[in-house]
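Ticket opened by: R.M.
Priority: normal
Category: complex prediction / small molecule

The reporter submitted a protein together with zinc ion and asked that the result be attached to this ticket for the collaborator who will pick it up next week. Submitted input follows.
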Amino acid sequence: MTPTLVVHSAAQLVSIASPGGPRRGNAMGELGLVSDGAVAIKGDRILLVGDTSEVLAQADKDTKLLDASGKVVMPGFVDPHTHVVFAGDRAAEFEMRLQGTSYMEIMAAGGGIMNTVRATRQASLEELVSQSRGRLDRMLTHGTTTAEAKTGYGLDTKSELKVLDAIRLLGGSHPLDLVPTFLGAHAVPVEYSGRTDDYVDLVVDEMLPALQVEGYLSDQAPIFCDVFCEEGAFSVRQSRRILERAKAFGMGLKIHADEFSSLGGTALAVELGATSADHLACTTDEEIGLLADSDTVGVLLPGTPFGLAEDHYAPARKMIDAGVAVALATDLNPGTCYCESMPFVIALACRQMGMTPAEAIVAATINAAHAIGLGQEVGSLEPGKKADLLVLDAPDYRHLAYRFGTNLVQVAIKAGQILAGESEV
Ligand SMILES: [Zn+2]
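Result attached by the on-call engineer:
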């Protein structure tokens, strides 16, 4: 087979070739580096990865060539935890917080998450899609080629379905691939204030069945169900009700656990076979042990404490040493973390959570792919996988963590198509 595109002569080719599941322990630091490396692509798939001389030998006069001399070539980032679809913003609240107003005071004045819920409920499907599209563009510019996208700013059946429709429309029309997650249990809406169990009834008895009726559960593509298990949101008992019902519908499971307090959400995730447990800033040693012995990926979100100017970062070093499969994500959302950049998350992970640059890259690629059920499809450069790769304007992968605040992604290739910056290479 003759390749359609060959990216060649990379100073470092980061392959992260990973047979089987997500990487753990020492394997999290192994990038499968090839010096003077190349990738051959046919259509939307990777054909061959190896030395430039070996790979270029497959090319003919019709093969497009991209010279990556002096640069790093690596898999596109997978961002496995985002709330990218929302309307409006909360810049004014950010300034109020900086000036000393607490998050709870802002909530009491009708702000916080309900601010975004109001704007999202009011927005038309078209407005929601157009406001979110710009964020996807910037994510792609910073190297994200696949992302998860949650609902959770609708909080009534009609609005939750509207957000899912927006995710489906964006995923179908934007080069970045989106994996949908239903997060109807993101917060208790004001109209259910003090009646959390009644809202859980709505999620279990009306929203989840509506997903099936609307055809969201019959697709071949994965769809997840997530719950915010936290004091002031949903208890372990309520989270279990929702996740068990979702599992019965055949959905993959996720949970927001241990962000501010440890309730037992991580143990619940392991017990139910969740694909991921996310946040994990206050996870106990016992639950870290449970996670390490399970197939559940721990998704860490260091942008969130940074965004809140707080210091409760997840104990990533302890988790990796214990054998947890750790992934990284942005948590992109309008309240606590309006961040579209996986490289910035990598830079934070190395400084605030004790990860090495290699571990952070594995966490942002192959392990992140496993955290959304796509570990066999994306997240590494291997024959047969989707041709999602980046050319970095840097001679060494460590620059991704070492430098921050500028964008080193010079070219993003999505499904074999060059999407940005070709003329610069
Ligand atoms: Zn979240």
